[in-house]
């Protein structure tokens, strides 16, 4: 009786036990309030309640000693039991990692429960379906019997359901006293010296920024639990700084100038100090202006703690991908902003001119493309001279032999390039993404988005040198890493894209309004690669199948689709076609549950939009400089739905947090800090608001970010940032740093006339346009200066105000006639008004608008009521280097011409002007 009474008292005490735990790290338990030692989030108070009937069971029915020992094991774990489970885990090769810190916590009761329940549950949950035909469901992977597309795991939406009480009990079991986290580790110091240097990749010396004497910054190694002390010595003549990409750290150490961290001024030494609470592959780079394009990046390796389960490799190699241009990055940004990228297209051989369209039988496709006011098809905006791995186009690791297993820690440090990764030695196994472990998956190739990291395992199959290749998405070049020694075995070559096929796809997806057509279904997580229609290495049948799926999504039925019945695909044809397995987000799986609490969820939606006209990239048609910070509360769960309503991919990166990318794995959805969103895709991410301060959420394509594609999440009631004491001034400086001002100019010097144009963009919307043309006697000229604001996300409309100055014989004759009191009977314009203006100088207001076929209509009225309408177009792509132009206005003036592009700044040109005659000369373009 005494023992039973004692047991009852103990049980009662358990029902009222209070403890504190971290919403992001439930294995962290404390008897006192405070902050989580892993992520800094405030611990949440919880009380465990156990029903009396469970505690009363021993009174009703005595339990044998063996069972009595098993029951308390749910809340109290002895050393022998822990050791037993460790051995069992090692035998079964089960990796126990928490979702961010990867610190091992032994949970015998949960482990035994998994043995009994999980396999059955998994078998019941996993099913496969066709992305295009969701009614097709199978319990095995394979091809869709209707269309032949590879079936994917069916999405599990169980994460949206309310939290189940049993799950809470399970979490409570994991929060045992033995599950507490302690931070040991040591202080690890690095000194980074930033200095200008010269590199030469193309035979031309160009400026770069070196860290410790090299273009690629040194790889920094830490062990989870260490305290990082990184001293940045700025030896440049400009501000700089470093951002620790994907690292969870105090806000003031994040490294975004004026937002989280003060800029490091010339001659200054700055200390970054933070505790390492993660393990995996991360990287670091400058967030100061466009410095990342010319250096200032390196890899971070956070090793697991001693004693943690880990795979042994013969070699672990950091692989930093990069893109190099001989152009100054400020000039690249300026050209993009001013839509002056003809030279890039010429260099890439990516011009889809009318001549090439006619030769390839795509004249109708090209015409429809321009009728819908779209630019030519491409998957990358910038021409890069070289692509790099670890700072060089090619490098060797020859000290590897047959059978060696190698871990490649890959980080895409490119400014705007996506890379396809493949391997000459066979398949590649993905074991980690964005610093977090994933259940290993083998693929033939994968595309790594800008700023993403992947941990990849490859094996050296024989004593040869095998190429690990990173090919730019536009396939104009690649960089190589050679593993092993001996005869070289190249990775599969990726041929140039069939861009007109991509143009056809784009035409079908876009409405005349510029928006994407509404879809019959929601696609996401890279389940379908629409660019497959452009991949020559795929079979024609596979490309056509992808094209049909796109039409199906758009609700379009083509003549070919009507003739061909999808159900007629024979099994033999499907088997004969060797498919290339690529990685998609939908098959990434966390090795453990990543579910978050559901009681404080806050949902947000953003539409990713933009245009190539003036390189505007926005969320909900607003740039980061046009919006206020988004206030969030500590402790809430943010669920964000992102829809890409543009034709470009966008790798969206969240600073200072990991988020769950909701995919088919449901509770085991992977943790990431970058999500690549393809055109027309919708993805959902969610994260716990467990930090303090302001955090950047932005597209990691450098030039998209600088064009405005981002938002700031700001925690309410944040403590003051010691590095930015004047918060209002810091925000003003941040806005100023992220507001682009760009200009362009054109001067056409011909035998019959001189013509000049300039344009300046002030931020994303405001513009100044100036134009002047004259004969060489300067007795017949016209000029104008306009200031206006572009409207809409496609910036097709520009209302403006300005002045016009004119001089010609008709104006002089009109003035003379009026001065003499005589009626003037000069030529009339299209609207029945006198062509000759009343005076040389006049104020005006007007509107420019882009019409189909990319023709600009400019209608204005001056202070005297005279109306002028002009229709014009520049840069009509007649061939790869030949451009046409024309202009006609309501005064009856007409001109046309052509120019042949010789190089970046220079063209030869010819023209005809109905008032100035024929002429030839040169055109200078800036």
TrEMBL record:
Residues 195-306, 340-474, 603-716 form the Plastocyanin-like domain. It comes from the Bacteria. One of its GO terms (molecular function) is oxidoreductase activity. InterPro entries: Cu-oxidase-like_N, Cu-oxidase_2nd, Cu-oxidase_C, Cu-oxidase_fam, Cu_oxidase_CS, Cu_oxidase_Cu_BS, Cupredoxin, CuRO_2_CopA. The keyword Phosphoprotein does not apply. Residues 19-46, 128-154 form the Heavy metal binding domain. Keywords: Copper, Metal-binding, Oxidoreductase, Plasmid. Residues 557-576 are annotated as: Disordered. PANTHER family: FI03373P-RELATED (PTHR11709:SF394), MULTI-COPPER OXIDASE (PTHR11709). This is Multicopper oxidase domain-containing protein.
């Amino acid at each position: 009786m005494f023992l039973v009474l004692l047991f009852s008292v103990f049980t009662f005490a358990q029902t009222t036990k209070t403890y504190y735990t971290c919403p992001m790290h439930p294995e962290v338990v404390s008897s006192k309030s405070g902050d989580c030692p892993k992520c800094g989030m405030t611990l949440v108070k919880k009380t465990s309640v156990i029903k009396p009937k469970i505690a009363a069971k021993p009174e009703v029915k005595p339990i044998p000693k063996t069972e009595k020992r098993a029951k308390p094991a749910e809340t109290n774990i002895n050393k022998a039991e822990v050791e037993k489970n460790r051995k069992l885990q090692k035998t079964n090769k089960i990796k126990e990692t928490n979702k961010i810190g990867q610190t091992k916590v032994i949970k015998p009761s949960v482990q035994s429960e998994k043995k009994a329940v999980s396999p059955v549950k998994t078998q019941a949950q996993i099913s496969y379906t066709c992305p295009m035909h969701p009614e097709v469901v199978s319990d095995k992977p394979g091809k869709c019997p209707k269309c032949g597309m590879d079936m994917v795991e069916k999405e599990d939406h169980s994460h949206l359901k309310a939290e189940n009480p049993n799950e809470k009990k399970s979490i409570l079991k994991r929060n045992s006293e033995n599950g507490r986290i302690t931070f040991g580790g040591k202080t690890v110091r690095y000194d980074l010296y930033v200095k200008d240097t010269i590199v030469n990749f193309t035979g031309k010396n160009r400026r770069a920024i070196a860290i410790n004497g090299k273009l690629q910054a040194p790889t920094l190694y830490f062990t989870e639990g260490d305290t990082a002390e990184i001293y940045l010595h700025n030896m440049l003549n400009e501000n700089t700084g470093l951002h620790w990409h994907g690292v969870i750290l105090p806000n003031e150490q994040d490294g975004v100038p004026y937002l989280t961290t003060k800029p490091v001024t010339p001659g200054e030494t700055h200390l970054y100090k933070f505790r390492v609470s993660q393990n995996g592959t991360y990287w670091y780079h400058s967030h100061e202006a466009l410095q990342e394009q010319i250096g200032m990046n390196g890899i971070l390796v956070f090793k697991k703690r001693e004693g943690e389960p880990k795979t042994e490799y013969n070699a672990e190699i950091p692989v930093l991908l990069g893109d190099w241009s001989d152009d100054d990055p400020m000039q690249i940004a300026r050209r993009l902003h001013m839509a002056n990228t003809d030279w890039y297209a010429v260099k890439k051989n990516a011009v889809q001119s009318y001549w090439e369209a006619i030769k390839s039988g795509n004249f109708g496709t090209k015409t429809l493309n321009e009728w819908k006011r779209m630019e030519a098809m491409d998957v990358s905006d910038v021409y890069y001279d070289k692509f790099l791995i670890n700072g060089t186009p090619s490098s060797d690791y020859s000290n590897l032999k047959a059978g060696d297993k190698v871990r490649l820690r890959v980080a895409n440090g490119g400014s705007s390039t996506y890379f396809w990764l493949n391997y000459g030695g066979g398949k590649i196994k993905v074991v980690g993404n964005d610093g977090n472990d994933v259940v290993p998956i083998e693929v033939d190739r994968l595309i790594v988005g800008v700023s993403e990291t992947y941990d990849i395992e490859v094996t050296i199959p024989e004593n040869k040198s095998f190429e690990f290749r990173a090919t730019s998405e536009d396939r104009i070049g690649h960089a190589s890493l050679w593993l092993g020694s001996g005869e070289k075995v190249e990775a599969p070559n990726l041929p140039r894209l069939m861009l007109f096929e991509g143009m056809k796809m784009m035409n079908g997806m876009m409405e005349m309004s510029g928006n994407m057509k509404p879809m019959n279904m929601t696609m996401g997580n890279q389940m379908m690669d629409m660019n497959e229609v452009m991949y020559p290495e795929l079979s024609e049948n596979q490309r056509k199948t992808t094209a049909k799926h796109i039409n199906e999504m758009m609700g379009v039925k083509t003549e070919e689709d009507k003739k061909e019945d999808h159900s007629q695909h024979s099994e033999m044809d499907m088997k004969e076609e060797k498919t290339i397995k690529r990685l998609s987000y939908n098959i990434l799986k966390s090795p453990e549950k990543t579910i978050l609490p559901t009681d404080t969820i806050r949902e947000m939606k953003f539409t990713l939009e933009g245009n190539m006209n003036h390189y505007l990239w926005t969320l909900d048609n607003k740039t980061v400089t046009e919006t206020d910070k988004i206030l969030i509360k500590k402790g809430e769960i943010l669920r964000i739905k992102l829809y890409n309503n543009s034709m470009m991919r966008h790798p969206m990166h969240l600073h200072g947090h990991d988020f769950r990318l909701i995919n088919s794995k449901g509770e085991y959805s992977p943790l990431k800090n970058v999500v690549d969103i393809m055109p027309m895709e919708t993805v959902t991410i969610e994260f716990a608001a467990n930090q303090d301060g302001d955090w950047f959420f932005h597209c990691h394509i450098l030039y998209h970010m600088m064009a405005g594609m981002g938002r700031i999440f700001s925690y309410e009631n944040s403590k003051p940032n010691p590095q930015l004491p004047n918060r209002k001034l810091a925000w003003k400086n941040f806005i100023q740093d992220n507001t682009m001002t760009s200009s362009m100019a054109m001067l056409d010097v011909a035998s019959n006339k001189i013509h000049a144009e300039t344009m300046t963009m002030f931020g994303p919307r405001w513009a100044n346009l100036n134009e002047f043309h004259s004969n060489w006697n300067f007795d017949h000229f016209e000029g104008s200066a306009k200031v206006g604001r572009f409207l809409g996300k496609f910036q097709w409309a520009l209302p403006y105000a300005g002045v016009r100055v004119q001089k010609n014989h008709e104006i002089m004759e009109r003035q003379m006639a009026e001065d003499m009191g005589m009626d003037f009977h000069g030529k009339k314009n299209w609207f029945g008004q006198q062509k000759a203006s009343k005076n040389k100088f006049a104020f005006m207001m007007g509107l420019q608008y882009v019409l189909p076929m990319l023709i600009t209509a400019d209608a204005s009225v001056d202070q005297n009521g005279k109306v002028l309408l002009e229709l014009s177009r520049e840069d009509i792509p007649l061939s790869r280097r030949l451009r046409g132009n024309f202009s006609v206005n309501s005064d009856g003036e007409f001109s046309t011409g052509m120019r042949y592009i010789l190089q970046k700044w220079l063209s030869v040109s010819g023209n005809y002007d109905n008032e100035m005659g024929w002429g030839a000369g040169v055109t200078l373009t800036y």
